[in-house]
Amino acid sequence: MRKRYFPMFFDISDKKVLVVGGGKIATRRVKVLLEFCNRIVVIAPEASEEIRALSKNDSLEWREVCFKEEDLKESEIVFAATNDKELNHEIGMRCKASQILVNVADNRSLCDFYFPGVVIEDEVVIGINTGGESPEKTKEIREFFSQHRIDLQNTKKS
């Protein structure tokens, strides 16, 4: 039986977060991470318009370069989200060797944790995860929760 991952919420606001990649998946990751991190570094020779725009904010630094091993030196959490499977694999292996928490977008066996579907409503954060088995199902459930917002004002105790 394959092990399941323990759902854990922890403070990453002051962690040194690195995202390698500037495409669609990296952009989705960055947009969610900005809700939880004070500072993110993105390494990508090219980046989406959204990452380019977000990099004008102090919370996101986009380095318009190719990944190098020394980019990991200051990182505590790394997201490998390039369109190059070999590069993602290399990043995952280097992080494992250096005991840096890593999420590899296209290889769940290299992940220390999975990136959840996230719904945020006021102070409530819902994380949805299928252990990498079904990203489509995670997305479907996230969209359901997003569409069926809870009126938190009516659920609070006085």
TrEMBL record:
The keyword NAD applies. This is precorrin-2 dehydrogenase. It catalyses: precorrin-2 + NAD(+) = sirohydrochlorin + NADH + 2 H(+). Its EC number is 1.3.1.76. PANTHER family: SIROHEME BIOSYNTHESIS PROTEIN MET8 (PTHR35330). Pfam families: NAD_binding_7. InterPro entries: Met8-like, NAD(P)-bd_dom_sf, Sirohaem_synthase_N. It comes from Aequitasia blattaphilus. Keywords: NAD, Oxidoreductase, Porphyrin biosynthesis.
